[in-house]
Amino acid sequence: MKPFLQRGASLVAHARHMSSLREQAVRVMASKIRADLETNPNLWLSASAVDEPTVSILDPAPGYALAGGGPELHHNLSLDFDQPMGNVDVPLAYLPIDPINLADPFTLVKQDMVNVNDSIKRILGSDHPVLAAVARYFFEHDGGKKVRPTMVLLVARAAEAHRRAMDTPLPETQSEEYTHAAQQRLAEITEMIHTASLMHDDVIDEADTRRGRPSVNKVFGGKMAVLAGDFLLARSSVSLARLRNLEAVELMSTSIEHLVKGEVMQMKNADARDDISPFEYYLRKNYYKTGSLMSNSCKAALVLGKHDQHICDLGFAFGRHIGLAFQLIDDVLDYEGVNTGKPLLADLKSGLSTAPLLLAQEEFPVLRELSKRKFAKEGDIEMASELVEKSSGIARSKALAIGQAELAAQAAMQFAPSPARDAMVRLAQKVVYRSK
Questions:
Q1: Which of 19, 117, 190, 350 has its CA 20 to 30 A from that of 362?
Q2: What sign has the CA pseudo-torsion 37, 19, 170, 320?
Q3: What is the pLDDT of residues 176-209, one digit of tens each?
Q4: By its UniProt entry, which Gene3D superfamilies does this protein fall under (predicted)?
Q5: SS3 label, residue 362
Q6: Residue 99 banded pLDDT, cuts 50, 70, 90
Q7: Range of the domain at 275
Q8: Is 66 exposed, middle or buried, given 0-12, 13-18 or 19+ CB atoms closer than 10 A?
């Protein structure tokens, strides 16, 4: 019996040691992220990064490697804080063998998302029946996957599982029930902010459809669409204030500010800037329009969960990289998508230069002239589309998106093993291998 007890004590000590090593590794990676946030506020990849070869850890065929120092670790598209941690003598995490077999992110939080949708309907209320009716029209006819609230719920679950694995209790002043309710409310707020931005975007773009259905501005008119978007922002702001967490309020308010900045950047011509390349301008705009809400909402969920700073930083990194990957693929689908619910070449028809075209300019410089005049002359759109198809612009855009998804997966893998952690990795894969 005595040797058995000694063996048991040894195993417990070993488990604690491994937990300590994991926590140390997470802190090291998060400190790199935090240091880069402080020293490099732009947070953008250089255009030259897309020239590097990409071997995707998200591709099921080759399988996964040990994250953190093995020779099979795949990381190619990165700033300093994204570099693999080859010089760290602690295990970071074991990457799953096959992402296809991981928990489906949308299935895992399906019931929570039902609660989110029901709660949004209650939040809209009936105090302003016309505005509420317009907003409800959008939600009831929305065929989207609701990626943003799904991310919030997954990150919250993964971080909680990590806390339990590290045997770190919640502060006595906060219960698990309250934490879960607050994080679900944040998921609702995130979806309302996103929906408001889509309503406003459709007015600015004069879009007649949204995911294959008549847009709000087409059905109710532009003025009512703008007011309905404002109504959603107001309701989301009230809900946010009721969470009584100043840091979460600041994070989400920043994301709203960035949505406006991103839309203004999209309306302007990047070639008019002397201090920044068109591709860097494009990446900044993508972060403001897509990445900021994803990164700040993921971080806010962990702030509400009273997690340590390094855990919150990992949530931010996951959301940021997913956001950049998501938008890059969105722009690729504008050229080759068949199930997107919007016409092909919609960006070109709106005068927008996105990654496939910006990268194709290196092979076909004439595209720069077409871009400067926003494809306004007859035949410009057809010529631009043909040259992009002939170039490597689409393939390089996909490679860049996959690289960003890899970085999101690496951030996710710093959490302790759990179905939510694995679903985060699967979500990174789904974002880049989608057709709509």
A1: 350
A2: positive
A3: 999 999 999 999 999 999 999 999 988 888 888 8
A4: Farnesyl Diphosphate Synthase (1.10.600.10)
A5: coil
A6: low
A7: 99-432
A8: middle
CA distance 5 to 8: 5
Contact 432, 329 (CB under 8 A): yes
Single-letter amino acid code for the residue at 211 = R
Residue 345 confidence class, pLDDT cut points 50, 70, 90: confident
**How many domains does one find in the chain?**
1
pLDDT the model gives residue 50: 31
160 belongs to a structural domain: yes
Alpha helix segments (H runs only) across 166-220:
176-205, 216-220
pLDDT at 80 over 70: no
* Distance from C-alpha of 183 to C-alpha of 298, rounded to nearest angstrom: 10
Is 260's pLDDT higher than 90? yes
Specify if 226 maps to a domain.
yes
Whether this prediction's pTM lies above 0.85 is answered by no
Burial of 234 (0-12, 13-18, 19+ CB in 10 A): middle
Q: Work out whether the CA dihedral 350, 355, 358, 361 comes out positive or negative.
A: negative
The answer to the question of residue 39 being in a domain is no
Q: SS3 breakdown of the chain: % helix, strand, coil, rounded to 5?
A: 70, 0, 30
Q: In b/e form, how buried is each residue of 117-135, taking b as 16+ CB within 10 angstroms?
A: bebbeebbeeebeebbebb
CATH of the domain at 211: 1.10.600.10
More confident residue, 87 or 314: 314
